[in-house]
């Protein structure tokens, strides 16, 4: 049976052999019992050491020192709060604007391997490139509707994005086709995207003749068949 006296005597023996107060790991390696058994018997490891050797190994009270971020006195090792810790880290370690972690990190365009700003996937020249089934990249105008469909709620997102670029290049978004409103103009397909077969090229769906600029109100009216715009 393991008694308190046996545990205390074993701690004294190990302390004398090592010429210092043993830690939990050292006692697990060289003692007769485990540190968990000692802790259960005396409540804590510190209590056992104190009763055996009259040595206090409980955590010492940390003296007040200034927070590394705001300078306020705190008993914590470095910062007075999580807010100060986050502010300091963002500013000096991995911050979005002035951080050092990503300062010299390079990224490469997934399509042409040109060096680009960190955390981007494509350079400006390859922005509308699409990865096809064999792993190669093709410009969106050279692929079919089936190749660019997404699985989210906006399944035609890529087609609409590229359509807006074409409409801008052809000055179709300067004002609404119906009311000449110019502060905000949507790019609208005259013939709906869903009406094209899946094998249709994006260049055909997004032909300038199939695009028109409409304000929000007339865009909604056109989608709900309240106004008519002649198909190309």
Write the topology of this structure:
Blueprint: H1 4-18, H2 24-30, H3 35-42, H4 45-53, E1 65-66, E2 73-74, H5 82-92, E3 107-108, E4 115-116, E5 129-131, E6 137-139, H6 145-148, H7 157-169, E7 186-189, H8 202-205, E8 211-214, H9 216-223
Antiparallel strand pairs: 1-2, 3-4, 5-6, 7-8
Helix pairs in contact: 1-4, 3-4
Gyration radius, to the nearest Å?
35 Å
Number of helices: 9
Order of helices and strands: HHHHEEHEEEEHHEHEH
Return residue spans where pLDDT drops below 50 for at least 5 consecutive residues: none
Helix content: 25-40%
Mean pLDDT: 84
Q: What coarse outline follows from CA principal-axis ratios?
A: elongated
Into which percentage range does the β-strand content fall?
Answer: 5-15%
Quick recap:
This protein has helices at 4-18, 24-30, 35-42, 45-53, 82-92, 145-148, 157-169, 202-205, 216-223, and strands at residues 65-66, 73-74, 107-108, 115-116, 129-131, 137-139, 186-189, 211-214.
Could you walk me through the main structural features you see in this protein, from its secondary elements to its overall organization?
With 232 residues, this protein is an alpha+beta fold. Among the domains are: 4-53; 155-223, no CATH class. The protein is 34% helix and 9% strand. It has nine helices and eight strands. It has helices at residues 4-18, 24-30, 35-42, 45-53, 82-92, 145-148, 157-169, 202-205, 216-223; strands at residues 65-66, 73-74, 107-108, 115-116, 129-131, 137-139, 186-189, 211-214. A two-stranded antiparallel ribbon has the order 1-2. A two-stranded antiparallel sheet has the order 3-4. α1 crosses α4 and α3 (35-42) packs across α4 (45-53). The radius of gyration is 35 Å and the shape is elongated.
